[in-house]
Amino acid sequence: MEEVLSYIPQAARTGIQQLLQSQDVAIKITKKRVTKHGDFRLNPRGTALITLNKTSNPYRFLITLLHELAHYQVSQTAHSRLKPHGAEWKKTYRTLFLPFLHTAIFPEPLCALLAGHLRNPKASTDRDFALVMALKKFDPPSLTTPLFELADGQQFELENGRAFIKIKKRRTRFECKELRTGKGYLFSPHEEVLPVS
Q1: Is 182 left (phi over 0), alpha (psi -120 to 50) or beta?
Q2: Which of 12, 23, 74, 125 has its CA 20 to 30 A from that of 152?
Q3: CATH 1.10.390 fits 2-136, yes or no
């Protein structure tokens, strides 16, 4: 539990410690994964596991922890046919989150953005552009750039070395083409990429 507490804001540690002591779930810190910040699963033997990406952004870590704890709590009280991010999860997530939603823990404008986020939480905070960009301000300096800042026709790489060219904006995402295969992909506007000159 000490490792988990070391990743969250100091002012939230007592509340999270009390919350975790009442939960029968294992928590594992993993290296950064590109596609998710965390996940929850019930193992075949009935044990529960939450995995969370290691990050130096304490606010993102706390949000992800509360998101996954909501999945755990729903799994303990509901049958498996519920939608993963349906009404029961949203209610549980809000209930868990509200005691931590104040400026002693989250600075403005994060606190205000999170209040809006909690009205109807999405499956991922990454679907809330304003919240993503506000959280990014608390990430360490990086050579990456959000995809929306690149011009159409500009080439970029992902952390794994795959190279793409930005084509154009579709409704909310950007159409891009992988240079090696010619295959098309849609990316979120805030996807962190390495521009290629």
Answers
A1: left
A2: 125
A3: no
